[in-house]
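Dear colleagues,

For the upcoming journal club I promised to circulate an example of a predicted protein-ligand complex. I picked one with guanine because it came up in last month's discussion. The inputs are reproduced below in full, followed by the predicted structure.
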Amino acid sequence: VLWVSNRDGKIDGFDWSVNPDLEEALDLFVKSKGWSVWRDGVDAKDGVETVVIVKGGRDGRNGFFFPGFIDTHIHASQYPNAGIFGSSTLLDWLKKYTFPMEKSFGAEEEGERAPPQAYTVYNKVISRTLSHGTTTASYFATIHVPATNLLAALCHQRGQRAFVGRVCMDNLVFCPDEYHDAFSEESVSATKEVIEYIHKLDPEGKLVAPIVTPRFAPTCSHAALSGLGRLASSYSPALHIQTHISENKNEVLLVKELFEKSEGYAHVYDETGLLTPRTILAHAVHLTPEERALVKKRDAKISHCPASNSALGSGLCPVRTLMDDGITIGLGTDVSGGYSPSILEASRQACLVSRLVASQASVTTGRETLSVEEALYLATRGGAQVVDMADQIGGFEKGMYFDAQLIELGPAVESISHESSHDVVLGGTEDTGNVDVFGWENWEEKIAKWVWNGDDRNVRAVWVSGRLVHKRGV
Ligand code: GUN
Ligand code: FE
């Protein structure tokens, strides 16, 4: 039983004792990783300040509440390209697919409103990620101020927790014609415009916050990088920052060429004031031990994007090594380098990639392998730490925002009558997605089935700050 305050959407209290079945699930997760899963029943509590907002999973549907997923790295503007990348790798993919798509978010004329397409695409991205249980997303938009502001406004209106960043890129060596900042000052001034817009939209930053977004070192001048570093630290508290790092070997070589004087890729960001405790570094596939030590020292965070790293052939991110170094890690879909907007898919890919890392180790111990629980930890608690909100989201402790998804795996197969199982075949009454529960599984096994075969058909409803933001029909 769970109570959520109607004033601030935060969890006000709970009582685990009501449903003994829950304890098995709870035990498993609380013990192993300090996070929780439970199912069924949310009832009324007396009093004015708290209301019931959740009526638990339906009877016998193998349902449970789970903390909303946190996508620590996603390009909203690239969503129309999801799945379209052919056999390209990062640098040619950017030129062939990505820059042309992003460019199309520009207004016809300077200072004009965002094009209708921005409205359509951004609404679709929000709908799609919510339907997959993403309650918080850290978005890259494009270089265009009107469209970036529109993305922030739509997240605010639709109720998705979000960081929204205007992409900065002013280095003509790598940027395409007609899609770049005119000069480094524009990177800073246009970012400022977006920050001011978002601060007006959501003065307390309860739902939507700005994030300073230099695209990555190869597209940015030293002046732009340091200007953006100064900009982020000029606010109190300092603004969040997001960028890419060491995703692809050719990219790493390019950074070596472009920033000859720097010791490494991470050092370029450090020298320009961009390596902070509120910085999200996407990918980090090829960091050197010295760079990892620097990232740890600055307490910068890493967004692991396994689906993208495999799709673009970027490499196998050594997540266990990063963890052993004490670096904070969350998961990112990296749409559309990543083909899927689902953090459940990212969790599953994180598990698979870790097994490949393990298979490549000189001594086979399996230590590199991530468990399902660890992947789900990265998808929730880890992500919360990455966006510096570990005390507010990512779990169900008292005082946290009620950012949650209600998952239903569906009725056990043995409990479905012959007639209704016929319906399933015909796509009739009960769409349990790709998961079949037979009835004998314990909670650990049910959760494993969810991670390996679940999808948005298992997400029945989603809440952010206690507000219902997505609901699936029967
Ligand atoms: N590096 C620079 N820009 C991008 C981008 O849009 N996606 C990915 N995956 N990597 C990048
Ligand atoms: Fe990316």
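Two points we might discuss: The longest strand covers residues 69-75. The chain has 15 helices and 16 strands.

See you all on Thursday,
B. R.
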